[in-house]
Input
Amino acid sequence: MNSYDLLRSFFRKYRWRYVYGILSLIIVGALQLVMPKIFGSLTDSFTAGRLTPKGLLWYIALILGTAAAIGVGRYLWRIYVAGTARLIEYELRNNLYNHLQTLSNRFFTEHKTGDLMAHATNDINAVRNALGRGVVTLVDAIFISLFTVSIMLKTIDWRLTVLALLPLPLLVGLSLGFGKVIHKRFTQVQAAFSRLTDRVQENFSGVRVIKSFVQEKPEIDRFLYSNQDYFDQNMRLVRVWALFHPLVQFIAAVSFLVVLTVGGTKVMYGDISLGDFVAFNSYLGLLIWPMVGFGFVINILQRGKASLDRLNDLFLATPEVLDESRGANVPPPQGELEFRNLTFAYNRNQSPVLQDISLKVPAGSTLAIVGRTGSGKTTLMNLLLRLYNPPRGTVYLDGKDIRDLPLRQVRRAIGYVPQDTFLFSTSLTENIGFGLDEEAISEEKAAAAAKSSQVHDDIAEFPEGYATVIGERGVTLSGGQKQRVAIARALIKNPTILILDDSLSAVDTNTEERILQELQEIMRSRTSIIISHRISTVKHADDIIVLDDGCIVEHGSHEQLLAAQGLYWDIYQKQLLQDELQGA
Output
């Protein structure tokens, strides 16, 4: 896809606004070209002695009227051109955000947050600048150049005009050459800004870790390095632009010097009148602006093109996980799960994370999953949630391939509490009710879910209760409080399938016991999956599997697995010993 395809729909939608804006711009340009003629005529009338007080008033009125019309025209083109560029910026940013929401987990693991933020800010601003100031300057420069040259040729002296325009081919060559360099260097500037943004975002998010490990000085040094890199890239761009602008002005000055020398001689010999010479110099002044403007346009348009190319790369990214149900009308899930010979790897060139997983979970039952870190427990849940695509014919919900079910329906049926709890910087009510429609969120519902997750008493102690706005990522809460709020967020959905992915690791044993007792009644009416390193968390489950290196190595009840004296028994014995040591 061509980068400009991104803008095609916007140009179709707003073409008439641009037409009105460009027409206003052309009218303003035409009125500006009238001014030198008025001053030239006024000069000739004055030198010939024909200027009367009434005539002078007429010239003043004509100048003021023309200036007023120019003012109105400038207002209109700003509304229709610059204003339309703002509309496009607004819609482009919305489209980018909406597109990013459709992309799969893999995309966000391969792209840094700071880089995506730079796309949504600096790159879109550069595109808006090109569609606003860039369009205005380009149209203005072209129109004024063509009409000014035409008037100079027809009404004053064609030989003088040709002499004034001799340096223009050099200007075209310089613009093309410098344009390529500006495009390349601005792309490097944007990439450096992305790295800087990512560094800042990461440091602010991890400020507690930085302070805990007394790493302020090293992190400041790393920031200085990124900031220096951004500065250096900008200076490389500025050096090119700083050289280009004076060269354009020098060419304009040469044109003016030629006209001043040759034109002054023609006035002395009577070949042209003083009024014509005044008008010619005024027109040449108007012509100098397009010469400078072309350089300005090259800079803006090349920056916009560089940013558009970067944005295009994002829009070309396609979601890995798609709704493949084709609008199939299926009944609400009952919660029966089945995995059939599931083998999965995140990338083709990597070893499988899960190998030959076969398992059936009846609706309403509780499955527990135990295993060492990296054994594939969370990956199994990611496939059930379709955060990644399982191979066809390997994961079933109510006897149907999960890839044939509506994606939205599958995810709405699952209440998921991940290992890495993420809370938003908003009120506790809104955090708990995040999975509900906005109008369905209420403090009463949030409180009921919070009581089940044993976090209600903690919230009640806050000065503002459920209206308390927590810090970024829930930083004002303890680890255990964050996990319990996340459990409440899953429960308030009243899901058919409840998944607790090591979500009690940050609470003490007594709190864990109270939460599990409260959840027992809730879990009776739905399919539940509990992932944990603690045997005490999973021992009451209907069925327990032990994962090791992506394979199911043990399967049975708590008593059966202890009797087998395998990996489960080994983990259990170590935890008993740990509890004894802590008790001592």
About this structure: Strands lie at 337-344, 354-361, 366-371, 395-397, 400-401, 414-417, 497-501, 527-531, 543-548, 551-556. The chain has a mean pLDDT of 81.
